[in-house]
């Protein structure tokens, strides 16, 4: 009998290597995702911005410039559309692809909290939208003769609507049974944000307004649009941003749950 | 007095069934295995034999229908999340890392294995040098060749020491230099840390050279488990004769006609497993006269693990893709 044939003996459990903690792991995922953008996302970020600027140009033909609800809605809707394009549509596609190709196995065999992967990726996708949103909002304000003094509100609108839309995008990508369905869901979500976001809510038929109320990006659009008024109703702005934050919390929790489900 | 080897991985009665398109496929059909600490243990078998399904259950990615998996004293069926803290896994896909540079892919993986940023960075630099990846360190994985990408993913597996490495076809597409880098890195970790390696492979030559023991998997079952030498002893006393004809086999030659039914034919290649004496006579017969004129090439070789697999009753025609 050789050594290798001898029966193996059971021993005390080996010590477990430490698991990664939530925040450092989240930071590592975020940093890696930002680096990915350099390689592959930049063309798509341009597309997101061009699309929104194109809509501004188109709408300028039918909407009067100056202080009126339609002009506010067009500029705010186009700017938030960049967030919907990237955080909802592209993120749904990314997670759909990762799931379909077995890429989630990489994370599932590392000792990381699921929330760090989902939140780190969602935060990165929301960050990708910052330049495009500011370019769109600045161009729109100039074209529609709106004040630029309160564009700082975008620093709240981007992360909060970003959280809501990225959570939704991640959940769609992770829950879709097939990669094509994840892509389809992301595209439909973005189309909804486009169609329901850029037109002033008061002009829409009532059933369409209900649909608009269901879409998380609408609250980001409304919060931003309100700040173009000479005397903004800050209480309503806060309420709209609060809705974004609440939807963000729910959708990111859902996405984390979807990730756990997909990775096991 | 020899010391009994300690178990690193013990699998018993493992069953996993898939349902695809209404039919039930039993990918693992009662698998029992013991991998000892510090050995390089191979899972050898044709495509679809159930090797990857087995590995996915060992790494906690898949829950078995029945049976148990114990890794270094931990029950990973009950606690699948512990697997990530015990092993480093190289899967077949790299999509999670594809758009990162080699250095960042390795560093991020190290961070996600719980290393501090400084430690992950230091280990990444060491491993990149060890594997000769410096010229590629700042290129994205997606822009590399298949073998280079595999080596980069292997680098990521090595950041953050683990007592067990599970490598699913690690050297696919690699050139000889990269293969050598992989096996030197594995040897170094065995010598320094007593690392155990579980290797999934199709590659018979590699299996014979690097494995301490090998389990041959066929149709979801372990049909043999021994050292490569032990398995080849099953076909001892036999040799393999390959004859490649230029066009059609010269069936007019009696010696060739007699082989027609016995040879395993793939295109113009005939393969025979026989005794050395008969092989010598056959070589003499086909290297003269009209048979020689029709012969393009022939090889006479000692048996490989592939021959052992066929002798064991493997259901597919061989191990190669």
Describe what you observe in this structure.
Chain A has 264 residues and is mainly alpha-helical. Helix content of chain A is 75%, strand content 0%. Chain A is elongated, with a radius of gyration of 22 Å. Chain B contains eleven helices and 14 strands. In chain B, helix 5 links the parallel strand 7 and strand 8. Chain B is globular, with a radius of gyration of 23 Å. Classes of the chains: A mainly alpha (264), B alpha/beta (321). Chains A and B meet through helix 1 and helix 3 of A and helix 2 of B.
Radius of gyration of chain B: 23 Å
Q: Report the structural category of chain A.
A: mainly alpha
**How many helix segments of chain B?**
11
Distance between the termini of chain B: 44 Å
- Please bin the fraction of helical residues of chain B: 25-40%
Question: Secondary structure elements and their pairing?
Answer:
The complex is a heterodimer of chains A (264) and B (321).
Chain A: H1 22-60, H2 69-100, H3 104-108, H4 114-143, H5 154-175, H6 179-197, H7 206-214, H8 216-226, H9 234-263
Helix pairs in contact in A: 1-2, 1-4, 2-4, 2-5, 2-6, 2-8, 4-5, 4-9, 5-6, 5-8, 5-9, 6-7, 8-9
Chain B: E1 7-20, E2 23-36, E3 40-44, H1 51-58, E4 66-71, E5 74-75, E6 87-90, H2 102-112, H3 117-130, H4 146-158, E7 164-168, H5 176-193, E8 196-201, H6 204-210, E9 213-218, E10 221-226, H7 228-232, E11 239-245, H8 254-259, E12 264-266, E13 269-274, H9 276-286, H10 289-294, E14 295-301, H11 305-311
Parallel strand pairs in B: 3-8, 3-9, 6-7, 7-8
Antiparallel strand pairs in B: 1-2, 1-4, 4-5, 9-10, 11-13, 11-14, 12-13
Helix pairs in contact in B: 2-3, 2-4
